[in-house]
Task: inverse folding
């Protein structure tokens, strides 16, 4: 009965998005549910509702629709044996759709919390529901069917910022490109939008945000609604890259009360990768955003809480429970902390770099950025793995990729398969001993000058897109004074803290036992992934350390 169905087979995504439950499965759901008689026209939930109940149709039927600016659009039809719900059931975010009964009948009703505990308890039904919720969310994203409209321009850095934030949170939205959409003037007039207001975000057809901060978008869409700020947690995980997401999955699945705080959208550096090909279990590769989306679903399924668009600016480390202080001024308390704030690309000292960020200068190469430079020449700066990956990816859609490498060779750490692909790719031109000397343009980058570091010769090129992927620094500035860092700012852990290394005398270590592996100079505070001194800077090692840290958190909590 679903709106996607043509001739379904068991492997069809449509069948799995709208499965019909068996009598045995329904009878398991009766426990903990209540029977509800429904009449045509009854509205069971609508956009913006929170903690929406879950319904299983025993008889009767209902439509799932989404109000839009012109009325409403049909998303799906449910009949007997089918069930309602989408990924917001698990994440606890606001509902995106309206459910209206079309034929009288009887429905089983289960509270949102009841459904979440059912998913954790019943492996078979848990898998059916999770798969359906994820597939339904993917369909909403692909169809641009969300309760939010983003009106922006491809020449606007803030449009790109918000698109990346929504995509990184796997949140469906309708994008109106003001450069090409002929009907956009009507929308602009209707919401009285002026040029300086762009990008404009319309939440739920009501609230209009003009050039909003990422935090304003998150608040308007209720991303952090279900977070109780007063709760003292077992563990707070700072940063939702691969290491933080792994820590969240293991913490929540092992029964710890875990909260992840992420300043942007989950995914970290890996989220800016078009394809990760060396992560175990994905022989054809996986995009960083897809890997992150799967990890978020997994962590939230087990009950981890995710707070996005909030930066941790300080750690209050004088006493336990420790407190992480957010940019909003709020402080969140926890008995243990996992620091997984990773690293960020160094910004080379080039005049005008900041001015063109998002308008020709990019620090990630995903599908989103590649769309902006189709059939044009682009520059990738850097000679390491991430630069190589970006060059190969961008060469599929760009006319030519100029790879500028400061030294005379590609980095020793670049994977062999990438070196080979670059060498075999006629669309990639390598320029060794070369660096950018100048950037020019009005609002959008238009010309780049590069310099040969050996001959000092310069040349200027009409190139409008530069991807900077050279050298990264740890994001540990918020920790100074609390945990010991190495001379580059990476966090020292475990045996590296030993006084015998001569680097960090452990005079202030208060316990009789030495720090555990991955434990910082503060008991119960752990560092994992790229932010940790000595880390290998790979997705697999980040994920491994996130998992190990939780094992160690249990020990630290036991002695607390
Ligand atoms: C383009 C690119 C391609 C790559 N390709 C590969 C590959 O193919 N294979 C591979 O193994 N590795 C690859 N890597 C490396 C890999 O992505 C990293 O090693 C990995 O992401 C590190 O994970 P992490 O969780 O430690 O840190 P990060 O991924 O850096 O995540 C840290 C997170 O913490 C957040 N954060 C930072 N500060 C704060 C704060 N104060 N408050 C709240 N949140 C904060 C950040 O926003 C970020 O989301 C690639 C990296 C890049 C950039």
Result:
């Amino acid at each position: 009965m679903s709106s996607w169905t043509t001739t379904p087979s068991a492997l069809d995504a449509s069948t799995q998005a709208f499965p019909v439950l068996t009598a045995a499965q329904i009878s398991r759901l009766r426990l903990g549910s209540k029977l509800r008689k429904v009449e045509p026209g009854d509205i069971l939930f609508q956009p913006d509702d929170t903690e929406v109940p879950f319904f299983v149709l025993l008889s009767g039927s209902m439509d799932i629709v989404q109000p839009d600016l012109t009325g409403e659009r049909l998303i799906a039809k449910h009949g007997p044996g089918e069930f309602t719900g989408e990924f917001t059931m698990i994440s606890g975010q606001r509902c995106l759709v309206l459910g209206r009964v079309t034929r009288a009948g009887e429905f089983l009703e289960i509270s949102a919390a009841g459904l979440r505990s059912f998913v954790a308890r019943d492996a078979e039904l848990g898998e059916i529901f999770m798969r359906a919720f994820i597939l339904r969310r993917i369909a909403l994203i692909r169809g641009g069917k969300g309760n939010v409209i983003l009106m922006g321009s491809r020449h606007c850095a803030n449009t790109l910022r918000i698109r990346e934030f929504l995509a990184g949170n796997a949140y469906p939205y309708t994008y109106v490109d003001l450069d090409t959409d002929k009907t956009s003037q009507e929308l602009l007039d209707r919401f009285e939008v002026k040029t300086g207001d762009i990008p404009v975000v319309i939440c739920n057809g009501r609230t209009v945000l003009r050039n909003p901060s990422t935090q304003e978008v998150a608040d308007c869409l209720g991303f952090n609604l279900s977070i109780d700020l007063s709760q003292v947690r077992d563990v707070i995980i700072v940063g939702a890259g691969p290491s933080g997401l792994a820590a969240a999955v293991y913490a929540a699945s092992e029964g710890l009360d875990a909260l992840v705080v992420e300043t942007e959208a989950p995914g970290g550096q890996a989220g800016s990768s078009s394809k990760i090909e060396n992560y175990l279990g994905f022989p054809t590769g996986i995009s960083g955003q897809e890997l992150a989306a799967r990890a978020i679903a997994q962590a939230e399924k087990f009950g981890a809480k995710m707070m996005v668009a909030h930066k941790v600016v300080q750690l209050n480390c004088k006493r336990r429970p420790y407190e992480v202080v957010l940019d909003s001024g709020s402080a969140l308390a926890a008995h243990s902390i996992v620091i997984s704030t990773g690293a960020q690309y160094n910004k080379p000292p080039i005049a005008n770099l900041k001015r063109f960020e998002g308008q020709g200068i990019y620090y990630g190469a995903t599908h989103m950025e590649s769309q902006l430079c189709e059939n044009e020449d682009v520059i990738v700066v850097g000679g390491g793995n991430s630069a190589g990956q970006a060059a190969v990816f961008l060469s599929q859609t760009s006319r030519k990729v100029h790879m500028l490498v400061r030294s005379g060779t590609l980095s020793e750490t670049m994977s062999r398969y990438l070196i080979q692909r670059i060498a075999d790719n006629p669309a990639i031109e390598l320029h060794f001993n070369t660096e950018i000397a100048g950037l020019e343009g009005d609002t959008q980058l238009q010309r780049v000058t590069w310099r040969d570091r050996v001959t000092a010769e310069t040349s200027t090129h009409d190139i409008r897109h530069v991807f900077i992927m050279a050298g990264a620094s740890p994001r540990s500035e918020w920790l100074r004074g609390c945990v010991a860092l190495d001379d580059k700012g990476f966090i020292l852990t475990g045996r590296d803290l030993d006084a015998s290394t001569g680097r960090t005398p452990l005079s202030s270590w208060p316990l009789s036992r030495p720090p555990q592996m991955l434990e910082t100079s503060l008991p119960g505070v752990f560092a994992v992934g790229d932010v940790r001194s000595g880390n290998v800077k790979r997705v697999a090692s980040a994920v491994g350390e996130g998992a190990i840290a939780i094992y160690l958190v249990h020990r630290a909590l036991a002695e607390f």
Notes: Residues 3-8 have pLDDT under 50 and may be disordered. Residues 238-244, 261-264, 268-270, 272-273, 276-279, 311-312, 340-343, 385-386, 389-390, 475, 478, 529-530, 537-540, 542 surround flavin-adenine dinucleotide (CB under 6 Å). Residues 123-142 form the longest helix (20 residues). Residues 383 and 410 are 5 Å apart (CA to CA).
